[in-house]
Specification:
Shape: globular
Number of strands: 8
CATH topology: TIM Barrel
Number of helices: 11
Strand order of the largest sheet: 1-8-7-6-5-4
Structural class: alpha/beta
CATH architecture: Alpha-Beta Barrel
Strand content: 5-15%
Number of domains: 1
Helix content: 40-55%
Length: 288
């Protein structure tokens, strides 16, 4: 399709695409596993940023949490010291607002991701987060095209080093106004167009509850495209207990039943004075 025609037809096609249920994953078949220890736990450090990282990693060791999310190469030496795995790395790109849907940023993003992919692989880690960027008036199909165009240039390097790029699904209703990758269907279509096992979606349960709901059915249907999970209580993004509307034991069972062997990271903002106690409770709730 010529670029001019693509741009002209984008708005109408986008509306049809996002309203269709035609995107289907492989038939869902639960995986039988023994009860207990079915979830590999991690935690997003930014939610506990008031605690020095060295101290926090010590807390994770005491709690038996083997991994941490959203850390970069500068933190890797401390992780090695404590024997904590980096389940989801960051540090490449320009943040959430400016991402792969903007072709003017591709050269800069490719250079940055090239450097970080090598550092992550050298450290022995596998997952690196990425973002679509905001719409800024751009049609979703045009943005999808731009993301494919840019990411396809970096994926061969990711495949070579065994690194998986994971684009996070975020809500554009409450926390990240105008963010483009705010729909499971849009993210799944991006995965399909890229066609690489080294590109997945980071399915954030909190964000997708706000945008779409129907969490368990979505996990069952589209789990082949999900490479990582984040938690969070809704409303408020606090503890994942009875104070909010999601029932995480059932969600964790649905994740485990798909045969998923990656990590689930707690990403709620503790409201308790004892933040580590709140984290312990969250992990316990998810420890099916």
């Amino acid at each position: 399709m010529k670029r001019r025609n693509f741009l002209q037809q984008g708005a109408a096609a986008s509306a049809a695409f996002l309203s269709t249920g035609a995107l289907k994953a492989a038939p869902y078949a639960p995986v039988s596993k023994p009860a207990g220890n079915r979830i590999n736990h991690s935690v997003c450090y930014w939610c506990y940023g008031s605690i020095p990282l060295d101290e926090f990693l010590g807390n994770l060791v005491e709690l038996g949490i083997p991994a941490i999310d959203l850390v970069g190469p500068e933190e890797f030496p401390l992780l090695k010291k404590h024997g904590i795995h980096a389940a989801m790395c960051w540090g490449a790109g320009k943040g959430i607002v400016e991402g792969w849907n903007n072709p003017k940023l591709h050269a800069e993003l490719i250079a940055d991701y090239t450097e970080k992919i090598s550092l992550i692989a050298e450290a022995g880690y596998t997952n690196l987060i990425c973002f679509s960027g905001n719409r800024n008036g751009m049609d979703d199909l045009v943005g999808l095209h731009h993301c494919v165009e840019g990411l396809s240039k970096i994926l061969p390097l990711a495949e070579k080093h065994g690194v998986v790029l994971q684009m996070e699904l975020l809500n554009s209703k409450v926390d990240h106004k105008d963010y483009m990758c705010d729909s499971t269907l849009w993210g799944v279509e991006l995965c399909r167009r890229l066609g690489s096992p080294n590109f997945k979606l980071l399915y954030d349960i909190y964000h997708m509850q706000i945008m779409e709901g129907d969490i368990i059915r979505t996990i069952q249907e589209y789990h082949p495209y999900f490479g990582h999970y984040h938690t969070g209580g809704n409303p408020g993004r606090h503890e994942i207990d009875e104070t909010q509307e999601l029932y995480y034991p059932a969600i964790m069972k649905a994740i485990a039943d798909t045969g998923y062997t990656g990590y689930v990271a707690q990403e709620f903002i503790p409201s308790w004075e004892d933040k580590i106690a709140a984290l312990k409770q969250g992990v316990s709730i998810c420890d099916i």
